[in-house]
Amino acid sequence: MYGNVLPQRADVAYLFTHTPPEEDSILDRGAELYANNSAWKVVIGGGEEAYTTTEGAVICNGGKDWRQKLRQRGVADDHIVTLPRPDPFQTRTESETVVDYMVQGDLRSVIVVACPLHYPRALLTVTSSVVKRGVKIRVYGQVGKPSNWFEGTAVSQGQPVASRFEALEGEWSRINNPDYGLSLTEFIDYCRWRDTV
């Protein structure tokens, strides 16, 4: 699950939005996929402007900021797409937004990129959205660049945690909720379909 054999070139690499301490992991991997021709476009979610708390603290930087950082990493501006921020703004709705974009553009393959602590849930949620809608989109995944697991960070709703390990408990409890997404068997069946030529 932490790495797939990728297609010759996917239509898009989708960079899952996350907090500022996690963004370099995601942006670096997305730029690498573009540079090595693994993805034609780099798609970012979360809207153009930063997502903030009611007090003004940044939960995640917006598309304008990420676009500039991707350009600095060598991604051509005309190969960057920013999707609108869904409401509510969470992994499930972000996944549905990227699947909507794929369907509307008649796109058939996406590489999901997320920071290491969010990666399993991000990949599973996009795959669940594809399967539940019955669309023929091949979902691949690439984990973001490694980070120090003992370093403090902020989870996707902006809450600080003492370490990335601490954040894993919430991620895994969501994945293990039977109402959340696909079962392991359904996910494996999907991967078998995805990897057939």
SSE string: EHEEEHEHEHEEEHH
Total tally of structural domains: 1
Main sheet properties: 5 strands, parallel
Low-confidence stretches: none
What is the average per-residue confidence, as pLDDT, rounded to a whole number? Answer: 91
- Could you say which structural class the secondary elements and strand pairing correspond to? alpha/beta
Biggest sheet, strands in spatial order? 5-2-1-6-7
CATH superfamily: HUPs
- Strand composition percent: 15-25%
CATH architecture type:
3-Layer(aba) Sandwich
Number of strands: 9
Shape, per Cα inertia axes: globular
CATH class wording: Alpha Beta
Overall radius of gyration: 16 Å
Helix residue percentage: 25-40%
User: What's the N-to-C terminus distance?
Assistant: 19 Å
CATH topology: Rossmann fold
Number of helices: 6
How would you describe the overall organization of this protein?
The chain has 197 residues and is of the alpha/beta class. It has six helices and nine strands; from the N terminus they run βαβββαβαβαβββαα. It has a single domain (10-194), classed as 3-Layer(aba) Sandwich (Rossmann fold). It is globular, with a radius of gyration of 16 Å. α3 packs across α4 (119-133).
